[in-house]
Structures are given as C-alpha cells and as structure tokens.
Amino acid sequence: MQKLVESFIASANVFDVERALSLFAPDAVIEDVSVGNAFVGWDGVRIYLERFFVGYNTASRLLSIQTPDAFNSNVRVDFTGDFGHEVGILKIAINSDGLIERIDADLE
C-alpha cells in the first residue's frame, strides 16, 4: 500500500494524469468533502486530477500513512499550490487487483 500511495503522489506531483489513472480501477470513486462532490470512474478521476492537481499546481508531500489492513489506508498529506497550503486526509481503499477503488478525501 505504501508503494501505491507513493506512486500516486509522485505521478500527481509531475501532473502525469495518465500514470495516476493507471493506479485506479475503472469504476473508482473519489469523494472529496472539501469540494462537495464525488468523481466516478476514470473520466471522473481524470477531471479531479486535472482540476485540483494540474489546475492548481498542487504539490503533495506524504506526512503519514496508517494501514489497518491490506486493502485500506489512512493517508495524511501536505498540499501546497496556487490555493495556498492545506493538510488533507485521504482514506484509500484498493481492490484485490491492487488498484485504487475509492478515495475519501477531506481537509483537516
């Protein structure tokens, strides 16, 4: 799980949307309470990445990761970008193929 999280952050940091998308299941969901919306499937995940990572020049730094089991992790991330600075929590769930199936995101 640590490697997957690090790969997601690394690809998002260089705005490689295609590489980031390859880490997600086709029917993945990102639900972000801070923006009040859910982004469904590869099309939705692409919109999320392009809008909130590429669009805001977001740079992310992993602060901590807790992995209660093989399929879930709670990730604390430091975000900086055109919006300023925020710390966020990403609850990441993966499927049996090791692909991200859900991220519940919020800001501290």
Topology of this structure?
Layout: H1 2-13, H2 17-21, E1 24-32, E2 37-40, H3 41-54, E3 59-69, E4 72-81, E5 84-94, E6 100-107
Parallel strand pairs: 1-6
Antiparallel strand pairs: 1-2, 3-4, 4-5, 5-6
Beta percentage is over 45%
Q: Compute the gyration radius: what is it? A: 12 Å
Shape: globular
The neighbouring-strand order within the major sheet is: 2-1-6-5-4-3
Structure report:
With 108 residues, the chain is an alpha+beta fold. A hairpin with a 2-residue loop joins strand 3 and strand 4. The chain has three helices and six strands; from the N terminus they run H-H-E-E-H-E-E-E-E. The relative contact order is 0.22. The chain has one domain (2-107): Nuclear Transport Factor 2, Chain: A (Roll), CATH 3.10.450. A six-stranded mixed β-sheet has the order 2-1-6-5-4-3. The longest helix has 14 residues, at 41-54. The radius of gyration is 12 Å and the shape is globular.
Structure characteristics:
single chain, 108 residues, alpha+beta, Nuclear Transport Factor 2, Chain: A, 3 helices, 6 strands, globular
Summarize the structure.
By secondary structure, the chain is an alpha+beta fold. It contains 3 helices and 6 strands; from the N terminus they run H-H-E-E-H-E-E-E-E.
